Amino acid sequence: RRQGKVTVKYDRKELRKRLNLEEWILEQLTRLYDCQEEEIPELEIDVDELLDMESDDTRAARVKELLVDCYKPTEAFISGLLDKIRGMQKLSTPQKK
Questions:
Q1: Quick count: other Cβ atoms within 10 Å of Cβ 48?
Q2: How does DSSP classify residue 42?
Q3: What's the half-sphere exposure (Cβ side, CA atoms, 13 Å) at 9?
Q4: Taking a C-beta distance cutoff of 8 angstroms, is the pair 40, 33 a contact?
Q5: Is the dihedral angle over the CA atoms 73, 74, 75, 77 positive or is it negative?
Q6: Which residues of the chain have pLDDT under 70?
Q7: Closest CA to 32 of 45, 41, 23
C-alpha cells in the first residue's frame, strides 16, 4: 500500500522562524503589559498583514495602533519586531515544491 503524497509543503525553515517570532512576541507582550500570557489584552499582530505593507513606517504605525492601550513605551518592541520580520515570507499561501 502506497502512502499518500502531500501535495503542498510549507518551508520548514520559515515555519520555525515564524514560531520563534510568535514566542518572542508573546514574551515581549507579557513584559509590555506586565502580566501573564493569559492576561494579555485581545490583540492580534498579523505578521502577514505587516509583510504586505509598503514600508517600515506603515508597519510601525499599525503595530502602535494595536498597542494603543499599553502604558509602557512600545518603541523598542516595535523596532525589534520590524527587525525580526525583515526578510520573512508570508505563510498564508503555501509554496508548492
A1: 14
A2: S
A3: 6
A4: yes
A5: positive
A6: 1-10, 92-97
A7: 41
